[in-house]
Design brief:
Elements (H helix, E strand, L loop, with lengths): L9 E2 L3 E6 L2 E12 L3 E8 L7 H18 L3 H11 L1 H7 L2 H14 L19 H8 L7 H13 L22 H20 L33 H12 L7 H15 L3 H6 L5 E2 L7 E5 L5 E5 L2 H13 L10 H10 L16 H10 L7 H13 L4 H4 L7 H14 L4 H8 L4 H7 L3 H29 L1
Antiparallel strand pairs: 1-3, 2-3, 3-4, 5-6, 6-7
Helix pairs in contact: 1-4, 2-7, 3-4, 8-9, 9-11, 9-16, 16-17, 17-18
Amino acid sequence: MVDDGISIPVHETEESYEYVDGEVVGGSWRQVEVPGLGSRWAYVAHEDRAWDLDLIGSLALYAAQWLQQRTSSEGTRATYLADIGLPHLLARLGDDGHLIAEDVRARTGVTLPVRTPGPRNVAWHLSLLPWLAGQRVDPWGPRVCEIMPAWGDQLTGHGDVADHVWATDAIRPRALSTAMQRRRAASVRSYYRWHHARGLTVCSPADIWTPKAAGIPAQSAFRDTGDELDREDLARLQIAADTHDGVDGDQALASAVVAVLVGTAIRSVEVSRLDLSDYLRGYRRGPLLRIHGKGNRERLVSLDQATVDRLDRWIMWRPDLAQSGPTVAARLATASRLPHRTPLFTPLRGSRSALAAARRAQEGHAGRLGEKSVWTLLRRVAGASTDRLVRMLAATIHPHGIRSAVATDLLDHGHPIHEVSAMLGHSSITTTARYDRHQRDRHIPAAASAAARQAIAITEAQRRAITA
C-alpha cells in the first residue's frame, strides 16, 4: 500500500474482499503495527479511499449516529461537529453538502450544520476531518493511526502544514487556547472511540495522541476570580438596562432581558427559545417561567415581582401584540390560543431573510431574538452606561458569566448545591461545582477543619492511652 512516505510495517496475507457500506472493497487482512498498541489484525484496502461524495456522505451518516448516542442537545451536537470539522467539509461541497445534510436528517433526525468558516475562524482546519482531507489520508484506514501525532503538533501550534481544502491556504492559523485544544481533542477521542467500537478503524487514533502526552496543562482546579462578576456588578447592570437610552423599545427590551438573565440564570440560547406561553404569570403559587433547556428538558423557575414588572412593561410595549388585548393577561391569553408559537422576546428590527419575513407576515410578530443578539444586547447596554464600572464590562460580559455569578452568590448564601443545580438546568452537580467561583474559598476552610478534627482525635487518643 502506498502511503506517501509514512511507513506502516505490514505482513501480507492472501487476497480477500470486504463489504464496506454495501460495496466490495479489494484488500487483504494484515498484521498492522499500531503505534503504542502493538501488532493487530486489520483489513487493509489496496488504496486509501478518496475524499469523494460517497466517503463524506458515510462520514456524515456515522457522525449523526455517534451524536444520537452521545447527546440529544442540538447546541452540544453542533459543538461536537465543529470540533471534528464536518460542517466545513460539507460547506466545501456546495449544494452536494446540503444534499448530504438533508439526507442524513431524513434518515436519522439529526441536523448537520453546513457552515463556511468566517474570516475570524482561521484555525478551523485544525479540526481533524478537514486536516485529514488536506493530507489525503483515509479517515478509516490504518494510516490515520500513524499520522495522529502530526495532527497533535498542528493542534498545539508546533506544526507548519498548509491547509489544502479551502482557498485561504495562505492564512497562518492562530494558536488555539489550551482549553480549546483539550476540548477539541476530547471530541475527536469520543468520535473515534465510537468508530473503533463499530469496527470501522484499526485503532482509536485519539488514544495514541493525548493533550496530556503533548504537554498541554490540565485545567486548573480553581479558577481565577479576579475578573468575575459579583452581585454588585449584576445590580449595576440592571440599573444600566433600566435607564438605557436607545431606539424606541430598546429600554423595555433590555430591562426585561437582563432581569430574566439575572433572576433565573438562564442560558442565552434558552432566552431565544422562550415563548409567551412560557410566561406563567397567573400561576396560583406565584409567577413562573418555563425554560426549555438542553436535551429538551424543561424546568420551572420562580420570578420575583421586579422581574414580572419589567416583563409586563416589555409585553405592553410590543406593537405586534397591540390587537391582542389592552392588558398583559389578555395578551398572554390570546397568544396561548394561537396555532403558532409567539416568542417572548423579539428583535426591534426584523431579520432580513426572506423566510423570516414570510414567517413574520404569516404569524404577525417581529421574529425571535437570537442567541447572539442576547450577547449584543448585553454589550450594548454596558457600553452605553453612564456607570464607569459597567462600561468596563462591555468587552467581556456574556450570559454564562451571569450564570456563574448567580450560582456563586446562591452557594455563598447557603443554598444547597443540588437546588442551585436544578435552577441552572444541570444534570449533574459536578457541572454546577465548576460554576462556583469561590470553590477555592470553600475548599480551604474544609481542609483546615479536617486537619483540626484530626488533631483533636490524636489528642483524645493520647489522653485515653495515658489514663488507661
